[in-house]
Amino acid sequence: MIQILTGIQNTAAALDAEHTRLDVISQNIANAHTTHDVDGKPYQRKVVVFETALQNAMNGDNSRGGLPAVQVAKIMSDNRPPMKVYDPGNPEADSHGMIAMPNVNIHEEMADMISASRTYEANLAVVKNARSMAMQTLAIGKH
Amino acid sequence: MSPLSSIAAYSPNLMNQIERLPAKTDEVAIPSTIPSTTPADNNSFSSMLGKMVSEVNAQQVNANQQVNALQSGANVPLHQAVISMEEASVSFQLMVEVRNRLLESYQEIMRMQM
């Protein structure tokens, strides 16, 4: 396959990774009040862990020395304790009227979402730049 | 004797040389660079161009498949589809550019004064 746009494989991998991160953030926000997760406990905030992947080495192409790309290594749980909220009307409240809410902080998630979407945007800017470089190269010798 | 007649006398000679030209290059090219098992026109310009056209076509087909998969609800990320469309578009532009340069040089030759 000809490489017509420079470094596009790595950028696509980064877009993939940031996409997953945004998915996980939306999952956290959606479950901000879930007191009953699949294990019966309050929902635990999820965190995406990125890792380096040698994209070109995986494709068997070492001509460029294996440019490192990014990929999602794993999605882990945030182990901070659940927040205790006083809500005696809730049927799940204990004898003191306290209920364990997920350890999701909406403000934190919003800040993370801004960071993820800006990173996504930066990678899109790389795609745009690669395209304009290719088009300018095709215009060599034109007046 | 008109001045043009000398050119007329010259031209058969020229035509002979032109006719001999491909034969000569074949004689030189086959033993030195191309292995005897492969046909001589494997490296020709037209086969290179044909390869390029088929590669561009493959990229267009790939982009088409990605967009179809995306629209039919398969697990294809949006950016992957758009990037493959972009790649297909740029390689098509490259092909058009090669064709333009080729035509330009052909026309340049056709305009040449004899």
Report on this structure.
The complex is a heterodimer of chains A (143) and B (114). Chain A is of the alpha+beta class and 143 residues long. Chain A has 3 helices and 4 strands; from the N terminus they run H-E-H-E-E-E-H. In chain A, strands 1-2 form a two-stranded antiparallel ribbon. A two-stranded antiparallel sheet of chain A has the order 3-4. Chain B has 3 helices and no strands. With 114 residues, chain B is mainly α. In chain B, helix 2 runs antiparallel to helix 3 (78-110). Chain B has 2 domains: 1-40, no CATH class; 44-114.
Features:
heterodimer; A: 143 residues; alpha+beta; two-stranded antiparallel ribbon; two-stranded antiparallel sheet; 3 helices; 42% helix; B: 114 residues; mainly alpha; 2 domains; elongated; disordered N terminus
Quick recap of the structure?
The complex is a heterodimer of chains A (143) and B (114). By secondary structure, chain A is α+β, with helices and mostly antiparallel strands.
Number of helices of chain A: 3
Shape of chain A: elongated
Percent of residues in helices of chain B: over 70%
Structural class of chain B: mainly alpha
- Overall spatial form of chain B: elongated
How many strands in all of chain A?
A: 4
> Are there runs of chain B of 5+ residues with pLDDT below 50, and where?
1-38
Q: Mean pLDDT across all residues of chain B, rounded? A: 74
Whole-number tally of structural domains of chain A: 1
Quaternary organisation of the protein chains: heterodimer
Distance between the termini of chain A: 31 Å
| DSSP strand content of chain A | 15-25%
Q: How many beta-strand runs of chain B?
A: 0
